[in-house]
Design goal:
Length: 73
């Protein structure tokens, strides 16, 4: 097996893992009890109810989530 084959296998495994993680998160969100209130883990401000309805597992407010995503790219 050459380097290209190993890289393709690794990418395929990563893709499969990501698909399983997305499916798991979707199932959790679909079955989650939507909280009325939650505080952002970063800034401590209240996470808006609309965000919690859209993303029941959200732990960050929109601003902090966007900041976190900017730091990843």
């Amino acid at each position: 097996m050459d380097d290209i084959d190993r890289l393709q296998d690794t990418l395929s495994e990563d893709s499969d893992r990501l698909q399983r993680e997305r499916a798991r998160r979707h199932a959790l969100e679909a079955n989650a009890v939507i909280p009325e209130h939650r505080e952002c883990h970063d800034c401590g401000e209240s996470i808006p109810a609309a965000r919690l309805r859209a993303r029941p597992l959200a732990t960050l407010c929109i601003d902090c989530q966007q900041d976190a995503e900017r730091h990843l790219s």
